[in-house]
Amino acid sequence: MRIAAFLLLFLGLFSCGGPANRPVDVFVWDQLRAHEDPERVEPVGTCEVDEFLAEMERFPWHEQAREALKFRKNSPTLSVTDLKTDRSFFISSAVDDSDRLGYFVGYVYPGEEGTRARRYVSLYEVEQMDAIREMVVVFFRRDEAGLKRLLGEQPKYMDARDHAGWDKYLEMKQKFI
Questions:
Q1: What's the structural domain count of the chain?
Q2: Were both Cys, which of 80, 135, 167, 170 would link to 19 (CB 3.0–4.6 Å)?
Q3: Is 48 contained in some domain?
């Protein structure tokens, strides 16, 4: 009896640790408009590739980029996250002083084990929405090599490490587990 109680206690201790990060085979998406607070962005819901591509078509990129420039607010952004691989892909738009529309795409992926940064972010400048559509399809296929090849064809804007976003990500992921 004492052995059974010990085993139950042992299992209970390990199941109550930090937030679980087990794979969930689902993609979730969100959007950030120019006037919204990025800290309050919540996932809109789950999606498949066709649904996300349709949202990209409906999103008012130019209007939102103008608003962001006028009010010096957030870049309007659509984002999709693969909860199975802990990777995200996002698209942001911006306009220059001549009202020319351009895009930034970002790829967020897990950091290496044992490093302070839990995730890395690579950001690229992309001029054509057609190139972004192709990247989205490859992202949904979970073809990382193909995505990196397509991203590598674009001018790199910057690389960064995400030190703070991991806990927020795990909190959001728990809603879908």
A1: 1
A2: 170
A3: yes
